[in-house]
Design brief:
Layout (H helix, E strand, L loop, with lengths): L1 H36 L23 E2 L2 E2 L10 H8 L5 H6 L4 H14 L8 H12 L22
Antiparallel strand pairs: 1-2
Length: 155
């Protein structure tokens, strides 16, 4: 009889363990479904702290630089900002130092192939600003190397 009673106790414990495992599995599946279908709940997820600098004036200029774009302050700056930085970074503008003729050709190409709108009188203002503040530079991809101690290669 002892063996039968012991066997029944083991069966009871096994049933309890199986029930607990079923409950845990059910709640885990429920939690998984909630995180998949409702990610905004953020269950089990820590949201990173967002640190952002609030710029009160987007068009603020400090030390001769337009803070939002990095462009130099000058006549025509806001025309350039309003027409050029809608489609691409100001850095793309400043790295392409060109003459007035090349800027006009580039603008025409952007109008023909990149859906740039007709600039009208603004085109002259833009080109004048770019040529004055970002003129072509007469240097190669890098400055020439100086003060180098060269050595002979031996065979």
């Amino acid at each position: 009889m002892d063996q039968n009673k012991e066997f029944q106790e083991r069966i009871k414990k096994a049933e309890q363990t199986a029930h607990r495992a079923a409950y845990v599995t059910f709640f885990a599946a429920l939690l998984l479904l909630l995180t998949i279908y409702y990610p905004q709940l953020g269950l089990g997820e820590t949201k990173p702290e967002v640190i952002a600098e609030v710029v009160e004036d987007e068009d603020r200029i400090e030390n001769g630089i337009h803070l939002r774009t990095g462009l130099k302050d000058g006549e025509g700056l806001m025309t350039v900002v309003n027409n050029c930085t809608n489609c691409h970074s100001a850095k793309l503008v400043t790295q392409n130092r060109m003459t007035a003729e090349r800027w006009n050709t580039t603008i025409k190409w952007m109008q023909e192939t990149q859906s740039l709108w007709e600039l009208g009188e603004d085109q002259k203002i833009i080109v004048d600003y770019l040529v004055k503040n970002y003129p072509p530079q007469k240097k190669g991809r890098r400055l020439a190397l100086t003060n180098i101690e060269w050595y002979e290669l031996e065979d």
